[in-house]
Specification:
about 375 residues, alpha+beta, Gyrase A, domain 2, Alpha-Beta Plaits, Elongation Factor Tu (Ef-tu), domain 3, six-stranded mixed beta sheet, six-stranded antiparallel beta barrel
């Protein structure tokens, strides 16, 4: 018997021949056919992911806005109902408790979508820091489900299953309605760098929605996609993965997330520490690189320059879109500029690499066009 949690779709994944692995305390599908095929489907057509392992934590009440402003690095007061914003929960030393998306349902009603491995941790953090301040807090992770429909065909496909006007739903906006005659929240968000939607539903509706979308999606080239493709897609978009690019010791500014930190406004937990760390000068910066020699850079591999060890790889994989190996890693700020020559130590070999701008692949539009930047 597995010690890991399962989403309500575990049996459906096995029926589709998925290879299951542990991730964030859950048994999840890493791939159904091949990572390359599933990655290509999301870039060119559409892929459907079970992301119900992600957590949902609701904060509501007459002082909900003030509570959420104190918790997250992004601005909340300017967030209108029906809008989503990305930000971080930070600790008092300026490290990152988690990176989250914040949804404003109504004036006094919000929820966080949080990383699977951090659900209990984040729930405790939120309760400890804002409970009793005119808000109620609910962890609805086990009673709700989440699907991610991603790719240039996602809008046309989903429109066949709903009366919601999806063409008018802008990026980082959401609407509540019905899909396949089930009550859902549809959000134009995702973790792939392609256009698409995340669909929140009750846990009891998850299997029917999954099956209905796969059936309707056959005409659009939809495939079920696993965590393997999700990782290569997010890496091409240079999106951080908690536990790799972010952790309790890492400031969001070190990870290049300045635009999601209301440092000039302040008022959030960790703000003063982040200001102090910025004033003192960060000793490392997150940079993207492309390998110029054959090989793959994996997390934990050493980065070198001028014969000295100078950093470490946080994430790395072959890019199916670019046909080259790419990675993210920590470097001294002086070595993080575009076109800086570095090497990656892969076992006993030193592979040549070059620092590049990120994202590695620009956002794929609704017509399925993608472009490499480097």
């Amino acid at each position: 018997m597995t010690p890991y949690k399962r989403t309500p779709l575990a049996a459906a994944h096995r029926a589709l021949g998925a290879r299951m692995v542990e991730f964030g305390g859950f048994e999840m599908p890493v791939q159904y056919t091949s990572i390359l095929e599933e990655h290509a489907a999301v870039r060119e057509r559409a892929g459907l992911f079970d992301v119900s392992h992600m957590g949902r934590i609701r904060v509501c009440g007459p002082r909900a806005e003030a509570a959420v402003e104190r918790l997250v690095t992004c601005e909340v007061a300017s967030l209108r109902p029906g809008a989503v914003r990305y930000g971080c929960l930070c600790n008092e030393s300026g490290g990152t408790v988690d990176d989250v998306t914040v949804y404003r349902i109504a004036t006094d009603d919000f929820f966080f979508c949080v990383n699977a491995a951090n659900v209990e941790k984040d729930h405790r953090w939120i309760v400890e820091h804002v409970a009793g301040s005119g808000v109620s807090i609910e962890n609805s992770s086990e009673t709700s489900g989440l699907l991610a429909l991603q790719g240039p065909a996602a809008e046309k496909l989903l429109q066949t299953q709903t009366t919601l006007a999806l063409a008018g739903l802008r990026r980082f906006r959401f609407a509540e309605g019905r899909v396949d005659d089930r009550t859902v929240l549809v959000s134009r968000t995702g973790y792939t760098g392609s256009d698409g939607f995340e669909i929140y539903c009750g846990a009891s509706d998850l299997e029917a929605l999954w099956a209905g979308l796969l059936e309707a999606g056959a005409a659009f080239g939809l495939v079920p996609a696993g965590l393997g493709a999700r990782d290569t897609l997010r890496l091409e978009a240079a999106l951080p993965l908690y536990g790799h690019e972010l952790d309790d010791e890492t400031s969001p500014l070190e990870a290049g997330l300045d635009r999601f930190v209301k440092l000039d406004v302040g008022g959030f937990i960790g703000c003063e520490a982040i200001r102090a760390r910025k004033a003192a000068g960060h000793v490392r910066a997150l940079a993207g690189f492309i390998l110029e020699d054959p090989g793959v850079a994996r997390a934990g591999y050493v980065l070198s320059a001028g014969g000295r060890d100078v950093g470490v790889v946080t994430s790395g994989a072959p890019s199916p879109t670019l046909g080259r190996s790419i990675g993210l890693g920590w470097l001294p700020p002086a070595l993080s500029a575009k076109d800086t020559a570095i090497t990656v130590r892969v076992r006993a070999r030193e592979l040549r690499a070059r620092v590049v701008e990120t994202p590695f692949v620009r956002k794929v539009d609704r017509a399925g066009r993608a472009a490499g930047r480097n």
